[in-house]
Write a structure and sequence with these properties.
14 strands, single chain, mainly beta, binds copper (II) ion, binds 2-acetamido-2-deoxy-beta-D-glucopyranose, Cellulose-growth-specific protein, Coagulation Factor XIII, Chain A, domain 1
């Protein structure tokens, strides 16, 4: 009894954390199965195409030095590389059942200099986005997200290696971002692939980013609050990171930005102010009650809060009275 009780105590102090998070544990491509890195086994003797990674815990800072591949950037001692044809589909498998259905799925490539990625630090590379799926239907507060589809699809995500991408050695970075609590949780892992039979469409400089660097902690897509009244009517979600590579072949349609955000208002707004981006500079409309919306890109309602409340910017798309 005593032994059982203490075992249970140990289990309950560790399991919730481990089960609530995770990462990519395997890959498949063209009928080949590739077992991934096991972060809780000894690194000695592990041979896999996946880059070593360190923890099931999420990264919660967009500037974290481990944001590229959830590791220090190095390849494994016995690092392998998978040969993958341009135009084929590659699938990453997370630990089952993935617990976080709210947030985007993203896949990036980064080409390595020279004839192999082995020995190349992932933080030195430039990445371009070849797949993304954000809010696919419904609203921010009550909708279907890329990561919800990932869970439905056996906790896996499939990305097409663009047929136009130049042949060569790449890291492929699969990422899911969880938005159920803030700060947002990043779960990125990488694998080494050699792309064969590719095309000649190099990514443009506007499509290339570094990790860290590609995201900011104030990005609208990383600060969105799922639990506001506004979230139950908002149907646009801005996926973090650079624009999709022009040759990308995503399975899910890109979201179209709301037409009303077309005027020069951009998501890069000053922080720490009580201004309401996208709202008219002259306060208008009836007083907005506590917790009501008072500003944000695409918003055209009242901007004055009922006394004694004032308007606070939550993100570029939403300011609230409180
Ligand atoms: C969420 O969406 C479902 C299905 O579209 C709907 O039945 C439900 O009432 C919605 N819940 C809220 C809180 O809006
Ligand atoms: C679902 O994923 C697991 C790995 O997590 C894999 O072993 C299994 O074959 C997959 N099932 C299907 C139907 O793809
Ligand atoms: Cu988690």
């Amino acid at each position: 009894m005593f032994a059982l009780a203490s075992l249970t105590a140990v289990a309950s102090s560790f399991l919730p954390t481990v089960l609530a998070h995770g990462g990519v544990l395997a890959y498949s491509n063209a009928g080949n199965w590739y077992a991934g890195w096991q972060p809780y086994n000894s690194p000695t003797g592990q041979t896999t195409i996946e880059r070593p990674w360190s923890t099931y815990n999420p990264i919660t800072d967009a500037t974290d030095a481990q944001l590229a591949c959830n590791d220090g950037g190095a390849s494994g001692a016995l690092q392998l590389t998978a040969t993958v044809a341009a135009g084929s589909k590659i699938t990453a498998y997370w630990n089952q059942v993935w617990p976080h259905p709210y947030g985007p799925m993203l896949t990036y490539l980064a080409q390595c200099p020279g004839s192999t990625c082995t020995g190349v630090n992932s933080n030195s590379l430039q990445w371009f986005k070849i797949d993304e799926a954000g809010l696919l239907s419904g609203t921010i507060g009550n909708g279907t997200w890329g990561s919800g589809i990932m869970i439905q699809q056996n906790s896996s995500w499939t990305t097409t290696i663009p047929s136009k991408v130049p042949s060569g050695n790449y890291l492929i970075r699969f990422e899911t971002i969880a938005l159920h609590s803030l700060p947002a949780q990043f779960y990125p892992e990488c694998a080494q692939i050699q792309i064969t039979g590719g095309g000649s469409l190099a990514p443009t400089s506007a499509e290339l980013v570094t990790f860290p660097g590609a995201y900011s902690n104030s990005d609208p897509g990383l600060t969105v609050n799922l639990y506001t009244q506004q979230a139950l009517t908002e149907t646009y979600y801005s996926i973090p990171g650079p624009p999709l590579y022009a040759g990308a072949q995503p399975d899910y349609p890109a979201p179209s930005a709301p037409a009303s955000s077309a005027p020069a208002s951009t998501p890069t707004t000053p922080t720490g102010t009580t201004s309401a981006p996208g709202a008219s500079s002259t306060p208008t409309g009836p007083a907005v009650p506590q917790y009501g919306q008072c500003g944000g890109i695409g918003y055209s309602g009242g901007t004055v809060c009922a006394s004694p409340f004032t308007c606070h910017q939550v993100n570029a798309y939403y300011s609230q009275c409180y």
